[in-house]
Each structure stands twice: as structure tokens, then as C-alpha cells.
Amino acid sequence: MQKKLGLVLMLLVGVLSAFPAWASEPIRIGALFSVTGPASFLGEPERNTLEMLVKDANAKGGIKGHKLELVVYDTQGDATKAVQLATKLIKNDKVSVIVGPSTTGETMAVIPVAEKEKVPLISCAAGIKITDPVKKYVFKTPANDHLAAEKIFNYMAAKKQKSVALLTVTDGFGSSGREQLKDMAKKKGITIAADETYGPKDTDMTAQLTKIKGSKADAIICWGTNPGPAIVTRNVKQLGIKIPLYQSHGVASKKYIELAGPVNAEGVILPAGKLAIFDKLAKNDPQVKLLKDYDTTYKKAYNIEASTFGGYAYDAFLMISDALKKGAKTSDQIRDGLEGIKKLVSVSGIFNMTPKEHNGLDLSAFEMVKIVNGDWEIAK
Fold first, then answer.
1. In this structure, which CATH number among 3.40.50.2300, 3.40.50.410, 3.10.450.50, 3.40.50.720 belongs to the domain 23-143+287-362?
2. How many angstroms separate the CA atoms of 76 and 13, rounded?
3. Cβ contacts of residue 238 below 8 Å, gap of 6+?
4. Residues 236 and 263 sit within 8 Å (Cβ to Cβ)
5. Pairing of strands 191-198, 245-247
6. InterPro entries recorded for this chain (predicted)?
7. Mapping DSSP to helix (H, G, I), strand (E, B) and coil, where does residue 272 land?
8. How far is 263 from 260, CA to CA, in rounded Å?
9. Directed axis angle between helix 79-91 and helix 104-117, to 10°?
10. Residue 13, SS3?
């Protein structure tokens, strides 16, 4: 009898030791990304990055003994669909946390669902209104657009450029950016010589740029996400406009250069996350190793370099991991863990959250970069 009991115990130990990581309940992570549609340049690298990180974490035994289960839905950039899918993630899939959506408009539509259902949402969109004012269950990984605006105006001031023409897209990202640009221009003493807009589906902006050409502005700031800014860049060249063209952080990927054409994009300046120029940073920069590792791993997995936008999902994963490593399991515990993040080195910067700050980045998250010969250089 004792021999049989001993044999059974040995078998049980063997079985348990074969699956040590899954001794605890899995943590279900939901994700809403614009994998297809006009914002696919955002959503595709976000999805790829999150899937890659979850797969790697599970291969290493999960986090704190918990397997990660990822449920990803494609919103196609549609705010109504994003709301429906957020509800599905919470009600049907029983996720503990949601990463995304990819755009500001979708995120603003989803926020009431996250708040009502008390499930933390880590947005991959940049609009400042996502986290200002603070909502209890809402966080975001891209630096706020007012920081990008300030970075541009600081650079303009150093170049003694005193007036600017604005050309912003009429979607959530563009409207928020326009508001922040106008507010920041007042603070920095920069005159707005022209204030033009374009629609997300517009295919030619020569009319707006012709007005801007006659405005005597010292520079142009275009604020949007592709394809619009790429069209603006081509139109600027076609019209022979010689003043500097600044873009927002919304185009900080090689896709923009590809769409605009390297010749047209030559000399364009924008605030970008450090991933774009990690190989040109000082060796003692605290982000360098992580950025290099991310780019190398992503290239190996998908045969293309990592993008700043995929980095937003990377940041969200590190935030969730940080909370789980500190013992969080439930949605509320994850939320509390996110709010307590301190000095978390990630792709977009070094995050420091507080109950009054759910983005946690500052001006150091951006570098001013310039497009030279189809690649990024640190702008001097």
C-alpha cells in the first residue's frame, strides 16, 4: 500500500513539475488595435509587438506563475466598433485589463465602458484628453501631445522662428493637437500666422498650403497621422514652399518617409520617441539597451524594424508585467499597480505614475529628429 501511495505521489510531483508556470489562474489581457483600415500603420505593429511579448513571457513560465492569455480584436479604426469590442472583451472574454485602442477618437469612445466596468484601459493613443482630466481606470503610453507641441516650439525658438502656420487634421488626434499647439504658441510667444485644417480622407491639401504660402509664416506645423501628413509633404514640395516643415510625433515611423517619398521628406523635422534614433544616442542613456533589444527581436520575428507605434504596446505590456510582478491579479489590483509605477524604463520613455498623472512621461520622452537621406538623424 505504501509503495502504491509513494508511486502516486511521485507521479503527481512529476506532472506538477512539468507545468510549474500554470499552477495559478491565467491572466487574460484584451487588446483593441486598428490592425486594418487607415490606421493600420499603428495597429499592426501594436498587435505584432504584444503577441510577441506574450508568447515570449509564456515560454519563460509566465509572470509570477500566471500564464498570459491574449485576446486581440481589430477595430478597423472605427470608434463604434471599438466600443462594441471593448464590451465583448469585458463581458464575454472576461479580460482583466485592455491595451489600446490605437487612436484618440476610439479611445475617447471606449473610456466610458472601461470606467463603468472598472477594467483598466492602457491606451496607445496620444491625445491629452485621454488622461487629462484623470480617469480612475484609464492610462496611456504615448507622451501627451502638449509635450510634442512644446518640444517643437522650443526648437523653433532656438532657431529664432517667431511665427507658424498650422495645418491639422479634423479627427480626434488632430483636434487635440490643434488645441495644444494654439495654447502652447501663446505660452511661448509664437504668432500663429495661419490656421488651416484638412479632413482625414482628403487627398490634396494644395488649397490650404497656397494660403499658408502667402501668410509669411516662418514655419509650418502639420499635425496628423498618415496618409494625410505624407500628402502635405508632397504638396509642400510641389508648391515650392521653402520654409521648414514640422510634423507631429504621429508620423514617427519609416512608413511616413515611404509614403511621402525620401526626396519630398528630406529636411522634415519632428518630435519622435528615442526608438527612431536609438543607435545615435549616448551609450549611457537608460533606454538604449531596451530599445536595441526590442528592435532586434522584432526584426527577427517580423523581418521589419520596430516602430515607435509598436513601442506603445510594448510599454503597456511592461506596465502590466510590473503590476503582476508586484502581486496584482484582479482588475482593481492591476489598476492600483499601474498607478504606482515608478522609474519604469520603456520604449517611450521612463514612466512615473501618480493618482494625478496617468501618462507619466515628460519632455525627455522626445528627441527632435530630422529626415536626412531617407533616415532619421538627431536634429541640431
1. 3.40.50.2300
2. 47
3. 206
4. no
5. unpaired
6. BCAA_transport, Leu-bd, Leu_Ile_Val-bd, Peripla_BP_I
7. strand
8. 8
9. 30
10. helix
* Annotated domain spans of the chain: 23-143+287-362, 146-279+366-378
What's the distance, CA 167 to chain centroid?
22
Q: Are 170 and 197 in contact (CB under 8 A)?
A: yes
For the stretch 19-26, contacts whose Cβ atoms lie closer than 8 Å and that sit 24 or more positions apart, written own/partner, are 20/61, 20/65, 21/58, 21/61, 21/62, 21/65, 21/66, 21/67, 22/62, 22/65, 22/67, 23/65, 24/64, 24/65, 24/66, 25/66, 25/329, 26/62, 26/66, 26/67, 26/68, 26/69
Q: What is the DSSP secondary structure assignment for residue 66, as one 8-state letter?
A: B
State the CATH class of domain 146-279+366-378: alpha beta
CB 261 within 8 A of CB 238: no
The Cα 121–Cα 31 span in angstroms is: 9
pTM: predicted TM-score of the whole model, two decimal places = 0.86
Question: Binning pLDDT at 50, 70 and 90, where does residue 17 land?
Answer: very low
Closest to 99 measured CA to CA, from 338, 298, 275, 361:
338
Task: Decide: 165 and 156 in contact? Cβ < 8 Å.
Answer: no
pLDDT 10s digits, 94-129: 999 999 999 999 999 999 999 999 999 999 998 889
Residue type, 177: G
Write the pLDDT tens digit of every residue in 318-357: 999 999 999 999 999 999 999 999 999 999 999 999 999 9
CA-CA distance, 111 to 121, in Å (whole number)? 8
